[in-house]
Amino acid sequence: MLRHLNVRFDGDFDLEQFAHKAFYNPLAHQIEMHLCSLRTQTVVLQALAAQSRGSLLWSF
Questions:
Q1: 48 forms bridges with which residues in the sheet?
Q2: The three-state (H, E, C) secondary structure of the chain, written as one string
Q3: What pairing do the DSSP bridges indicate for beta strands 18-25 and 50-59?
Q4: CA-based nearest residue to 2, from 26, 25, 18, 22
Q5: Residue 22 — φ and ψ, nearest 5°?
Q6: Domain residues for 42?
Q7: What is the pTM of this model?
Q8: Which of 4, 29, 41, 57 could potentially form a cystine with 35 if both were Cys, beta carbons 3.0 to 4.6 Å apart?
Q9: Domain total for the chain?
């Protein structure tokens, strides 16, 4: 997902600085998948003129 965002939107996610975490959420009865940054990052998506800072991406 991050590689696709880098290519598609001219992003600068540091792929080596993310870990994949998956767990079951019994309250929602679903498996949740998170991409957790190993450090706080500021990411720029040039094609969208967007910038974000943080350490967690939640994909579902």
A1: none
A2: CHHHHHHHHCECCCHHHEEEEEEEECCCCEEEEEEEEEEEEEEEEHHHCEEEEEEEEEEC
A3: unpaired
A4: 18
A5: -130, 140
A6: 2-59
A7: 0.70
A8: 57
A9: 1
